[in-house]
């Protein structure tokens, strides 16, 4: 087994190294790729040093079984052919191919088998907010079909990459030192603020991030579910939170919902309000699962349920989900 990471210096790329190590992912060879900026840089994995190669249009991917790609959409588009032409399976973290009919969009807890049909040898990893949402929706969908979901997200700075995370941390330092605040990655200062915009606006008033949640959820769940999202950037370093309301076809009791979450694949139920016990990003950082709490009946709608989820978006929302896809393919002998 020969694997590659493309974009290893980034927030997701670094998480790939941690996740592969943590899960003892079986491989014989690892090749790291980056741009000219990080080519030649060394990373240590399980005591062995690996040097970053510059990603180029050549035959470097010949013999590589799986490439974990997280270098942004334009790089994925430009290099997809180079990466896949010798049979490498490209598991792509960008949004470039997610809605293409001939590219499966996969969250192993929900639709792992879709990864087996991949005419272009590309498998797309969904958007981090969508992964977290569908893992939580899946156990409820098994109780009663979910007709619609309204979601408000509370997205961490690191969702916009390693430099965005640094920008937030620096802003807090600059404010404490009474210095001018540097604002480059986000539209406004994020420290001591929330920004009700993630990605650019589309013609219908929703942002691209919000429309990803609508479209990707339907594709992954093979469902006609309607998703209306408001995506908000908050001054949290890592792990996204989501306040979710769902309307099911038939009423689902709080007890049944909690039981389904507790048994749900990839879900941890953390819901004891009397003891102030609910998921929070500070404590879910570094965890594999989607944490669910504040489960309650909607007082305005007999078929409505509200709950709160938190998940580490660099881990489950990106690197871990991609590695779980690879593990699924190995387990199913479907590489
Ligand atoms: N952050 C998250 O929570 C998250 C979650 C889900 C999905 N994603 C997606 O994952 C991708 C990466 O995100 P990130 O947060 O890790 O971004 P990031 O921290 O900004 O890292 C970007 C990476 O892309 C590499 N890169 C840029 N141009 C390249 C080129 N020409 N050739 C090879 N590598 C190149 C960079 O390498 P150099 O340093 O060598 O230039 C760097 O390693 C994006 O598509 C993003 O939407 C991110």
How does this model look, in words?
It is a single chain. By secondary structure, the protein is an alpha/beta fold. The protein contains nine helices and 14 strands. Helix 1 (11-22) packs across helix 9. The mean pLDDT is 98. The chain has two domains: 2-125 and 318-331, Rossmann fold; 130-313, Dihydrodipicolinate Reductase, domain 2, CATH 3.30.360.10. The chain is globular. NADP nicotinamide-adenine-dinucleotide phosphate binds at residues 7-13, 33-35, 37-38, 55, 70-73, 75, 93-94, 128, 158-159, 161-163, 313-314, 317-318. NADP(+) binds at residues 9-12, 37-38, 158-159, 313. Homodimer. Keywords: Amino-acid biosynthesis, Diaminopimelate biosynthesis, Lysine biosynthesis, Methionine biosynthesis, NADP, Oxidoreductase, Threonine biosynthesis. One of its GO terms (biological process) is isoleucine biosynthetic process.
Structure in a nutshell:
It holds the Pfam family Semialdhyde_dh. The chain is α/β, with parallel strands linked by helices.
Features:
6-stranded parallel β-sheet, Rossmann fold, Dihydrodipicolinate Reductase, domain 2, single chain, binds NADP nicotinamide-adenine-dinucleotide phosphate, 335 residues, alpha/beta, 6-stranded mixed β-sheet, globular, 14 strands, 30% helix
């Amino acid at each position: 087994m020969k694997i590659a990471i493309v974009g290893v210096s980034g927030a997701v790329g670094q998480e790939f190294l941690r996740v592969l190590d943590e899960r003892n992912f079986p491989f014989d060879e690892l090749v790291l790729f980056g741009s000219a900026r990080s080519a030649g840089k060394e990373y240590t994995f399980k005591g062995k040093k690996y040097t970053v190669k510059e990603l180029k249009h050549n035959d470097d991917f010949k013999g590589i079984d799986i490439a974990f790609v997280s270098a942004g959409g334009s790089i994925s588009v430009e290099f997809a052919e180079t990466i896949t032409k010798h049979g490498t399976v490209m598991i792509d973290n960008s949004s470039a191919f997610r809605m293409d009919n001939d590219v499966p969009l996969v969250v192993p807890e929900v639709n792992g088998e879709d990864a087996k049909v991949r005419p272009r040898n590309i498998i797309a990893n969904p958007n981090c907010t969508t992964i977290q949402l569908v893992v939580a929706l899946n156990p409820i969908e098994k109780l009663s079909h979910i007709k619609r979901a309204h979601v408000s997200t509370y997205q961490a700075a690191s969702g916009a990459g390693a430099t965005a995370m640094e920008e937030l941390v620096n802003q807090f330092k600059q404010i404490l030192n009474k210095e001018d605040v540097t604002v480059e990655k986000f539209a406004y200062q994020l420290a001591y603020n929330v920004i009700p915009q993630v990605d650019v606006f589309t013609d219908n008033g929703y942002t691209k991030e919000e429309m990803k949640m609508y479209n990707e959820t339907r594709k992954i769940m093979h469902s006609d579910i309607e998703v209306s999202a408001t995506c908000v950037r908050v001054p949290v370093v890592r792990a996204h939170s989501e306040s979710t309301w769902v309307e099911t076809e038939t009423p689902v009791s709080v007890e049944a919902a909690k039981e389904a979450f507790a048994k749900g694949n990839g879900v941890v139920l953390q819901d004891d309000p009397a003891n102030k016990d609910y998921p929070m990003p500070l404590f879910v950082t570094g965890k594999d699962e989607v944490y669910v709490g504040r489960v309650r009946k909607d007082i305005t709608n007999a078929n409505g349920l509200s709950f709160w989820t938190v998940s580490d978006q660099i881990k489950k929302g990106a690197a871990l989900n991609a590695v779980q896809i690879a593990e699924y393919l190995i387990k199913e002998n479907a590489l």
